[in-house]
Automatic annotation (TrEMBL):
This is Archaemetzincin. Coiled coil: none annotated. It comes from the Bacteria. Pfam families: Peptidase_M54. Keywords: Hydrolase, Metal-binding, Metalloprotease, Protease, Zinc. Its cofactor is Zn(2+). GO terms for biological process: proteolysis. One of its GO terms (molecular function) is metal ion binding. The keyword Nucleotidyltransferase does not apply.
Amino acid sequence: MKYYFLVFLFVIISCTNRNNENVNIFQKSNQKVIVIQPLGSFKAEEAKKVFVEIKTINPNVVLRSNISFPENSFYKPRNRYRADSIIKKLKNTIGEDSVIVGLSHSDISTTKNTIKDWGVMGLGYCPGKACVVSDFRLHVKNKNQQFYKLVLHELGHTAGLPHCAVKTCLMRDAEGGNPLDEEKDFCNNCKSFLKGKGWRLL
């Protein structure tokens, strides 16, 4: 009788471990390699901070050396760079299993409705393989914290998340302003979606 009990217990433990392994395999298979690409004169120490923070949600992170902005991305009339041109270029520098985020100190812009050149803090394909963020429009006081929230926001778009109506969610639409200090975390719905993509979120 004792022998059968031990066999039964072993089977239960084996099944539990196998289920856990399957969950881990599922999460790893969904995780993309996140490539961090500093642009222009973006400071190395600030890029490293982003690298360290991103590793907490995805250990598969690569930090590249600085590269120049794409030649066709500079918009001379406003002395800034076109975000749409940047991500179009960046997406062609990575593999299918990766997503890339460009980091910029310079101002960036895109076309919005009838406005040809609209200044933005970030832009990303939704879903897609590339996004870019800029700290040019961020508050000096909480710049590092705001910048990381911005990175997560744009990476959220690349994973397929649209803007969120929850005011404290990191996927909130900035609507031309800077509400980053009001944003605390991904809301439950957005967090659940990203966990399904392999993100390691609490």
